[in-house]
Amino acid sequence: MKFTAEQIAGILEGKVVGNPNAEVYKLAKIEEGVVGSLTFLSNPKYLNYIYSTQASITIVNDTFEPEQAITTTLIKVEDAYKAFSKLLEYYNQVKLMKSGIEQPSVISENVTYGDQLYLGSFCYVGKNVIIGNNVKIYPNTFIGDNVTIGDNCVLFAGVRIYSETEIGANCTIHSGSIIGSDGFGFAPSEDGSYTKIPQIGNVILEDNVDVGSCTTIDRATLGSTIIRKGVKLDNQIQIAHNVEIGENTVIASQTGIAGSTKIGKNCMIGGQVGIVGHIIIGDNVRIQAQSGIGKSLKEGETVQGSPAFNYGDFSKSFVHFRNFPKIVSDLDNLKKKLE
């Protein structure tokens, strides 16, 4: 799909300096711009590239005035970075603007869906499923019985949504993620074997939740595993049964959260964090990457380490740890002198 400088300026409410009929069909970094590409300049560190870029169109701040000859057509806006972000969002919307039901696909009994549904080929939709307006479900996706999906959701290829799951509006679930699989519940028997405990709860994703690729969210044993509105989950995260994650909390990849832990709102959790079950993490907590959380954390704490403790204390202790061989050597020398 091609766009002219004039069309793009209309979307961004900008001013064209150069050829209004210049066309682009792809995006590029300014240092990698080629004919037919659109780029932007906002960081002064990249200023030199605007004089050498081959990009057909470049979005710049309205204060920019070239000091040398340029070949690219400019679109001047108040804030080039924000304008380019807006354009990316618009581009993404156009790219995802699909509708219709492809074949082969299976839609079971008593399924209801709204306007502008896109259901890709080889999808399965179970009984009594309710799907809202403008939902995009990409190929090879499974949706179990009694699932509800709100308006404007996107489920990318290969997503698995188990039965009874409730998904709010404006949610995005990326490929390979599984929502609603059984929690890890087994009871030991006297003979040393394990008996599976039925997992009869569900998963609830509230509005505006993003789930990265290959992330798994287990259904509750009883009740619900709840991901509150605005939560953003990275790729390859494990969330166990009956966990609750508060509003607008963000979690980086390879984090694992054990069962029945409650995490507050506006928390930031780094990658490869391990969190034990049955604890409470307060609002606005910051957990540094690769930390091990074995106890509850109070509101506003920032921690690091395994087991994790106060971030400032960890940083001071780490300095001593790095100097530990020298400290031991100094103690040995001191001991010899005393003897």
From TrEMBL:
Residues 22-89 form the UDP-3-O-[3-hydroxymyristoyl] glucosamine N-acyltransferase non-repeat region domain. GO terms for cellular component: membrane. Pathway: Bacterial outer membrane biogenesis; LPS lipid A biosynthesis. The active site is at H241 (proton acceptor). One of its GO terms (biological process) is lipid A biosynthetic process. InterPro entries: Hexapep (IPR001451), LpxD (IPR007691), Trimer_LpxA-like_sf (IPR011004), UDP_GlcNAc_AcTrfase_non-rep (IPR020573). It catalyses: a UDP-3-O-[(3R)-3-hydroxyacyl]-alpha-D-glucosamine + a (3R)-hydroxyacyl-[ACP] = a UDP-2-N,3-O-bis[(3R)-3-hydroxyacyl]-alpha-D-glucosamine + holo-[ACP] + H(+). GO terms for molecular function: N-acyltransferase activity; UDP-3-O-[(3R)-3-hydroxyacyl]-glucosamine N-acyltransferase activity. Keywords: Acyltransferase, Lipid A biosynthesis, Lipid biosynthesis, Lipid metabolism, Repeat, Transferase. It comes from the Bacteria. Its EC number is 2.3.1.191. CDD domains: LbH_LpxD. The keyword Transmembrane does not apply. Belongs to the transferase hexapeptide repeat family. LpxD subfamily. Catalyzes the N-acylation of UDP-3-O-acylglucosamine using 3-hydroxyacyl-ACP as the acyl donor. Is involved in the biosynthesis of lipid A, a phosphorylated glycolipid that anchors the lipopolysaccharide to the outer membrane of the cell. Homotrimer. This is UDP-3-O-acylglucosamine N-acyltransferase. It comes from Flavobacterium aquatile LMG 4008 = ATCC 11947.
